[in-house]
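=== RUN LOG ===
request id: a7f3
mode: sequence -> structure
chains: 1
length: 162
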Amino acid sequence: MVRSLPSTLAGAIGVVKKGDVLEGEPRHGWLLLDYQFSIDRLENGEGRWVLMDGKDLGLGVLLRVQLPTPIVTKMYANALQLSFDRDVSAYQLEVEPEIGEKFDLRCCEGKSMLVHGLHSDCHVRLRYTLDKDIGPHGEWEAAETTFVPDWEETPMDHVWTY
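=== RESULT ===
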């Protein structure tokens, strides 16, 4: 139910169906859809509010955070470049390489970041999370670092001197 004020007693002004994707700003257990409105407009009931958690009413969790999927834009021998179309600085990135230990990174501000410390020709799974231990977690994205052959020693039997 969409309400004009953050209260179950406020008038209903719309309906949210299961599967609808909403964008807004969480405020004290409610999702404010019109977060750009002034405080005066919100206090006058011009905003749209959706209850996020109905446990106290016997309804359970009504909304859950939907995290984006990492977008890999470049693959290197020992790193992956991720690009963002929105701010992900509040997230952590979980990195699960096929070779080596799993690790977590705090996402940076900006439009891209590099994930270093990977092995060449390695399958890697990546996902965003708000808290790595309790979630919520985004969907996994699979990627692979570029193959770079190992260095080969050149035999010294054909070295020429002047």
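=== NOTES ===
The chain has two domains: 2-61, 71-144.
The helical segments are 39-43.
=== END ===
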